[in-house]
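> tool_call: predict_assembly(chains=two)
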Amino acid sequence: MLEVDVSHRLGSFNLDVRFDSAEGLTALFGRSGAGKTSVVNIIGGLIRPDRGRVVVDGRVLCDTQRRIFVPAHWRRIGYVFQEGRLFPHLTVRQNLLYGRWFTPAAQRHERLDDVVDLLGIGHLLGRRPALLSGGEKQRVAIGRALLASPRLLLMDEPLASLDDARKDEILPYIERLRDEIKLPIVYVSHAITEVTRLASTLVVLSGGRVAAAGLLTDIMGRPDLFPLAGRYEAGSVLEAKVAEHDTAFDLTVLSCAAGRLRVPRVDLATGSEIRLRIRARDIIVAVQQPQGLSALNVLPGRLAEIGPLEGPIVEVRIDLNGQFVTARITRKTVHDLQLAPGREVFAVIKTIALDHRSLGLSGRPHDTPQRADHKRF
Amino acid sequence: MPPWLHFSPEELTAIALSLKVSIWAVVVSLPFGVAAAMLLARCDFWGKSLFTGIIHLPLVLPPVVTGFILLILFGRHGPLGIFFADVFHLVFAFRWTGAALACGLMGFPLMVRAIRLSIEAIDRRVEIAAGTLGANPAWVFITITLPLILPGVLAGMVLAFARALGEFGATITFVSSIPGQTETLPLAIYTFTQVPGGELGALRLTLVSVIISLAAVLVSEWLARKATRHTHGT
């Protein structure tokens, strides 16, 4: 779907990046200054790389060896910028229809009404951008990019300038783009919560290079990448299904290979696929089945790997019946409990730690689309 | 109407001529003004300082000098005068077209400056966004840049118009003061003050000058406010 292999020099910063991605949402993740925006600018044709190739959907957009460089306005790649960049002199409706004007009629695959519905911006059509809130602007910017009927959508930290409430307002819409329209998306973010909720493929950038690339579930469990994610938010991702709802206590039970997990109630039909992020700091490791505990989730597993034994804290990987989670525990615990790879342990996870920010609709490429009745959690 | 407000046919001719000359001067110089402003605001090229200097020359040169240079270049035997007469059948010497040329040139630096400032104030990232939506650079200019600089363009046009209306030195040097052909308002006022009993005529034309200039400023203020409201949606 997308092949990127480029190197480019920006002042003293060297970008040298190579990755492929399949359908679905590809997240470019890394700290500020890792080169994420430069990569999307190269894909979008806003930067001409010094060397390399960019191929989208089999179409070569840039190949320095063959002297090919398709200018941005011929690429049909949508771009949602961090600051929206709406046209201030046009109404929301005119903003939305702007790109349509330049799209050949035969290639227009989005309709205004559908996009307006999808993004919930019908009541804004007559307004000018100056009168919109930050979240509204971003939704209009997404709609504007969609209505140009792009082959690929680039989103450069579209939520970075918004507060948490506005982020929660927009995230479901991005999930719908991914699942309902099935638009390939490249999503730049330095927020691990957004990435784990949205991405199917993850590309971790660090210092202008690819530190890791692959399926999100594979990459997220790797302790060696934790410093890039930031230790506080570091964790693992589990794919699960909604098994049942416990209406009496307002809980939802999820089932996955690792076992059954209780989380605060989510409004999803039973059988829905869901993705769950568990922060390494929220997992307690026990060597015996604990009793009389307030935490509801106790999953049996086997210790797979123990990270470097230095400093106060150690990352350990636990194999929960084929699904892996990472826990952060003290080095003293490892010593006192005589933990070693292969040891049978229990992973204890508080239900409270698994709030709506940890949960996202599963965005795996070949899922059947889930309909709009579960927009939000 | 009091008798002193009765305009003579000569005075009416001067008023009409002045309006014609100024309007043509502004309209014809506008595309060049926008192009020069874009060049100065957006492009870096060899000799840019010299180019800037030449554009601003009419602002700093004595108008008589500008008029004389025009006479040398665009007069009947001047190189450009011959060229325009041969190729476009356009004669400037001692015609109202020459007055319009002189007026347009004198107002040009003011127009370019106003437009350039508004171009520099545009958020270029919005233009880049338009490019990602499929608009080529020409369409970006027409649909995004031009509407956003409209207030600056209007301001530049009014400044140039006012300058054209008041232009005296370059005009009289280049095309002389021929009633009905090149005698614009300032020249007519000057002529009136040179003949005995001409004060009333001079006063009437002065009044007209004030009214036209004031009207131009008010109209441009109104248009600019409308344009700004339009862009900022309030």
